[in-house]
Amino acid sequence: MNEHLTALVPEIALLAAAVIGLLAGSWLPRRRQWIIAALAAAACVTGMIATALTMAEGRERTVFSDAFAVDTATDAGRLTVLGALLLVGAMSVERMRHHRREAEYYVLLLLTGAGTLAMIGANDLLMLFAGYLLAGVPAYALAGFAKDAAGTEAALKYYLMGALLGTVMLAGIATTYGAGHATLYGELRTALPSAAYGLVAAGLVALLAGVLFKIGGVPAHFWVPDVTDGAMAPVAAYVTTLPKIGGLIAAYRLLHQALPTSEVNWPLLLAVLAALSMTLGNLAAFFQTSVKRLLAYSTISQVGYLLMAVAVATRSDLAQRGLLFYLAAYALTNLGAFAVVTELPDARTLDDYRGLARHRPGLAAVLVICLLGLVGTPPTGVFLGKLQVFSAAIDGGYTWLAALAVTNTVASLFYYLRWLAPVFWSTAGDTPADAAGRWSAAVAYIAGAGSLALGIAGGAALPLTTGPLLP
Question: Are the beta carbons of 118 and 88 closer than 8 angstroms?
Fold first, then answer.
């Protein structure tokens, strides 16, 4: 059994920090609880450094009886998740400072981050489900962390949907095991082509149900707007960003490694789900007035674009790099938009942003960059990510899907401009919205600048997403 713990430094760092933070938080005085936040940040930085060293040395391998793969997709996903987790933690500082459960908040973030990393590298169905649970259970608590009516409702809906579709996913694992007599992707790759078609199809659909819940894709998307709207803004930023990274990379690895030659036409199924997600997400966002609900439906549409890469996982060499780059660009851009929302806690509707360009020109600039970035406007990172994914769809034989995606991209400009228009409308009676503090503003500037940098210097970042998946 290849138990190389050095290959799991990012995951171990998060779990160790969570355990230490939970123990230390029980006796630290409230004014010293910030130490746990610093510990969480240190764990994220440690994981990013370890990942960078692994990528530089090219140490790709599978560990723990091949149940976990450390390869290009894992390393790129680790950097994105850890960077996003660091930004979510930073934008939470003002809200959680001196909170009586401050330590527990950062512990929950660390645990759900570790679960997301487990999903990214999962090379075995049981490992995938363990990551699903570890990423999900702490997130349910985070959704209701404020203990108000909206947060409690959000947590309940999130939990019920997660428990239901998690059970369906577990049934899918059992069905797939019954068909292929294995849980390792490499063994399923050789066993499933000769297995009963009905068992393989049923197992795959049930597995995808759990993944679709995690990423917020149609038809498992119903929780997204309510949880995003009811949870605290930093938690909303988390649930619309990190689970998608883990779920999409996990789905890509599962389909690419375990079912590349299966008779089940899963590429068409994923293409249809992608089309539904991007279209329904955009249509629902058109007439939203709540900024958090608008971003929630926006993230459903973004899932549709990202699923295009999963649909052509075995049909195009552009799929992997398009998916990994798009995820990194989306994480920065979406977190930048939510950082502005976090910085202006009293601005809940589009009209509340009226005159922002006059009172807070820096935040207005970030909002313009991030919202137009979500559309896919150059020179932002999402533009380059969309270009890669659309090219992969055409290369994989789904030109109709790429055409639908372009149509949806143009249509999405409408509701983003509905938000941006009041930002530049100013009247004499406009008053600046109260600001949360410097941390969330700093995150907004960093994320906005990062989105632009990733778009401008994308040529240097794309090679980091290219490399084979380990069997």
Answer: no
Q: Measuring CA to CA, which residue among 392, 123, 73 is closest to residue 258?
A: 123
- The string of pLDDT tens digits covering residues 419-430 is 999 998 876 556
Q: Is the peptide bond before 379 cis (omega within 30 degrees of 0)?
A: yes
| Residue where the block lists tokens 């599978």 | 62
220: three-class secondary structure by DSSP: coil
- C-alpha angle 416/419/422, rounded to 5°? 145
Residues 280, 282, 283: CA angle, nearest 5 degrees: 65
At position 416, the amino acid (one-letter code) is Y
Residues in contact with 264: Cβ distance below 8 Å, sequence separation at least 6, in sequence order: 197, 200, 201, 204
DSSP state of 354: T
Contact of 243 with 116, CB cutoff 8 Å: yes
Decide the pairing of beta strands 61-63 and 68-70.
antiparallel
pLDDT exceeds cutoff 90 at 417: yes
Query: Which amino acid, 172?
Result: G
DSSP percent split of the chain into helix, strand, coil, nearest 5: 75, 0, 20
**Banded pLDDT at 1 (limits 50, 70, 90):** low
> CB within 8 A of 459, min separation 6: which ones?
none
Would the CA dihedral through 277, 257, 77, 56 be positive or negative?
A: negative
Alpha carbons 285 and 279: distance in angstroms, whole number? 10
DSSP secondary structure letter of residue 432:
P
Q: For residue 194, count other CB atoms closer than 10 A to its CB.
A: 10
Q: Supply 1's token pair.
A: 């059994």
- DSSP string across 152-172: HHHHHHHHHHHHHHHHHHHHH
* pTM passes above 0.85: yes
Kindly state the average pLDDT of the residues 268-295.
96
Structure tokens at 314: 């075995």
Structural element, H or E, at residue 182:
none
Beta strands in 268-382 (DSSP E): none
